[in-house]
Amino acid sequence: MKWNILALFTVLLTVVTCEIDYYGVLGVSKQASEKEIKSAYRNLSKKYHPDKNPGNEEAHQKFIEIGEAYEVLSDDEKRGVYDRYGADGLKNGGQGGRGGGGGGGFDPFGDFFGFGRHQQQQQRNQKPRGSDTEVAVDVSLKDFYLGETFQFTVEMQNLCGTCSGTGSKDNKTHTCSTCNGSGVRIVKRQLAPGMFQQIQTTCDQCHGKGKTIQHKCSTCNGQGVVRGKRQYDIFVEPGTSRDHVHVLSGESNHSPDHVSGDLKILVRESGKESYGYRRRGDNLYRTEALTLKEAVAGGWRRELMFFDDENITISRPSGKSVMSGEIEVIKGRGMPRPDHHAEEFGDLVIDYVVVMPGGVSNKAKYLRDEL
């Protein structure tokens, strides 16, 4: 009797759960820097993205794991808890599985007899957050100055309208008969006579969902999602900074298995409609070429086309010379400053270049707009 009790106790203590290794998922060491973790996440998320692996459930699960790993390891506080207590520590407020009244973690007695399944089901019902999607919109310098609404189309993953994202033709799902709806299977292994180990793994029948489909939707082939185009309008405010990122919350790829991430729109500056100006912060810069006669004798006047249709006049009276490399600053004719309550603008800086007779200076060859 004594040995039977000891054997049973040994069995209970050897029951373990295959806890995910977030460092292993991203393929980095525990000493990895924030930059290394971010780089690994970007590379792996591209490799296993559902768009590149349509219908590949294994890649889909891997993609979710990568997102979970990055969410934890990119946050210093969460990473610290994970390093000390593992994944269970994140679920139990940093206490890991070390006693207390939290009731979290892997309980060898409760899980061995099935007492822990209700809690596991609750955890599975908490959907992970999906990855963000990044797109770029090219905006001319003129539109950066004046402000403009832009319409663009992007192809994304959407919930299937035919089956409402269930993947089922009749919109019905059924409890998985293999795992009885738990989403996991318990594999029992004998380590030695009288000693066993139970390992919890994802159910390969329902892929951890706890539900199965008897009649697949013909539109999405049971996936619950389809590819489709979405149309968006964004307003670029006058003076918006170059490479500004506009965020549309929850507008990334949709899926019944995760909470949608964000759609991030990078507003880039194109080379169109610059009118010879270039931007640095709130100021505009322009290089203006003068002949030797104009530079020495003066007596010239020019009208410069500008973004607001109000031309800018530059001139020199007769007898007023201009040196090559001379700078003229015109106050208030730069870019709008959107962060200020009143209408404020930066300055326009004009750099004069004197073109010598019989040739063009190297500097004058590049009298064009530069980003």
UniProtKB/TrEMBL annotation:
The keyword Transmembrane does not apply. Pfam families: DnaJ (PF00226), DnaJ_C (PF01556), DnaJ_CXXCXGXG (PF00684). Residues 21-86 form the J domain. GO terms for biological process: establishment of protein localization to mitochondrion; protein folding; response to heat. Keywords: Chaperone, Metal-binding, Repeat, Signal, Zinc, Zinc-finger. GO terms for molecular function: ATP binding; ATPase activator activity; Hsp70 protein binding; unfolded protein binding; zinc ion binding. Residues 1-18 form the signal peptide. It comes from the Eukaryota. InterPro entries: DnaJ (IPR012724), DnaJ_C (IPR002939), DnaJ_domain (IPR001623), DnaJ_domain_CS (IPR018253), DNJA1/2-like (IPR044713), HSP40/DnaJ_pept-bd (IPR008971), HSP_DnaJ_Cys-rich_dom (IPR001305), HSP_DnaJ_Cys-rich_dom_sf (IPR036410). Residues 147-229 form the CR-type domain. A zinc finger (CR-type) spans 147-229. SMART domains: DnaJ. This is SCJ1 protein. The gene is SCJ1.
